[in-house]
Design a protein that fits this description.
mainly alpha
Length: 124
Amino acid sequence: MRKKQSIVQLNNEFIQNENQRLRFEEEEISKRHRFIGFIMVIIVFLFILPTYNLMSSYVDLQEKKENVVQLKKDVEELTEQMKAKKALAEQLKNEEFILKYARAKYYYIRDGEVVYSTPELLPK
């Protein structure tokens, strides 16, 4: 068996007005929460876009730093090669060196000579 409720709610004008006022306040609070949520979403987007741009710039900067390091190594290698070629060009001004170089590198021989090649003695 069900227990009978002993509380009776009055349904007069005051109660109806209070219920209507509470519904209106709840609706206003709901609208305010939606507005604040919308503002928060916009703020999140405003922080995400610059962060993405900052990260992509950082990645580009790191790639460029690696590229600079590689280019510096290339410059050092080319400088060494250029020094070696200049040294060879200076040595090629000496006629005696030219004869040794031609004999060693291109196996140039005079009549009656035999050339034995030793790779570690070849000028580079």
